[in-house]
Specification:
It contains 3 helices and 7 strands. With 123 residues, the chain is of the alpha/beta class. Strand 1, helix 1 and strand 2 form a beta-alpha-beta unit. The longest helix has 20 residues.
Length: 123
């Protein structure tokens, strides 16, 4: 079964797309970006109610995966991280194949896989 990742805000446009996808034999992986706004509880309740309704319909062919909620602040941290990585790639003349990962358990950031070096720094 094909998986479709979709940002679901609880608003009209994303809900319309979810309804369209529900008619297909796909796995829907919904994401919700939580921001500092008063409407978050209402949006999440709308998403829950719509999902329950779609799951009850006979015409629904999709399989819903649990919604993944992430904070808008996490996106900003990722952007800052990307800028730091770009700085270190330039500073240490790392190869374009350099990649990174963030270990959220101990908040360590690793920049890895340059041809000859591994750089580690802590946030």
């Amino acid at each position: 079964m094909h998986r479709v990742d979709i940002l679901w805000t609880g608003g009209f446009d994303s809900t319309y797309r979810i309804c369209e996808l529900s008619l297909l034999e796909v796995e829907i992986q919904p994401y919700y970006m939580k921001a500092r706004k008063k409407s978050v509880p209402n949006e999440l309740q709308a998403i829950k109610a719509i999902r329950e309704h779609l799951e009850e319909r006979e015409s629904t062919k999709c399989r819903f995966l649990p919604i993944i909620v992430f904070n808008q602040e996490e996106i900003m941290q990722t952007k800052i991280l990307a800028l730091r990585i770009k700085k270190y790639v330039k500073k240490f003349q790392l190869a374009a194949s350099t990649s990174c990962c963030q270990d959220t358990l101990n908040n360590t950031i690793l920049v890895l896989r340059s041809e000859s070096s591994i750089i580690r720094w802590e946030n």
